[in-house]
Amino acid sequence: MCKYKHVFNSRTDSASKLTKTQMWERVLNEFNAEARGSARNLKSLQVFWKNIKRRTKDVEGEIRRQRYVTGGRPPVSIRVDRIHEEVRDFMGPAAEGMDNPFDSDGQNLLSNTYFITFNAL
């Protein structure tokens, strides 16, 4: 999957749909060549990948929530494995989410920000 990162992390439009389909076919062939059990079809492999990404996002969200509980320290109750780390690195910012500057520290942020107000003419 890593060698196809640029394709899988891009948006899907009519021009890139064919490229993504071709990449999925390559991944399917490589996966089935190395699989020890029964071969997967394209749809089941895509669902499998979607579920792995969803679980990675769920774990990353829980880690973020635990950081607020622990005051910024890493959570002690959540353990991640090598696969989670690889998928998180593959997904990039999409896995970890975005910071909200107006979250629990919003008032502190506002006191350090300069606001310009415009009066109506």
Automatic annotation (TrEMBL):
Domain Myb/SANT-like DNA-binding: 5-57
Keywords, alphabetical: Transcription, Transcription regulation
Domain of life: Eukaryota
Pfam families assigned to the protein according to its UniProt record, in alphabetical order: Myb_DNA-bind_5 (PF13873)
Function per UniProt: Involved in transvection phenomena (= synapsis-dependent gene expression), where the synaptic pairing of chromosomes carrying genes with which zeste interacts influences the expression of these genes. Zeste binds to DNA and stimulates transcription from a nearby promoter.
Subunit structure: Self-associates forming complexes of several hundred monomers.
Stated name of the protein: Regulatory protein zeste
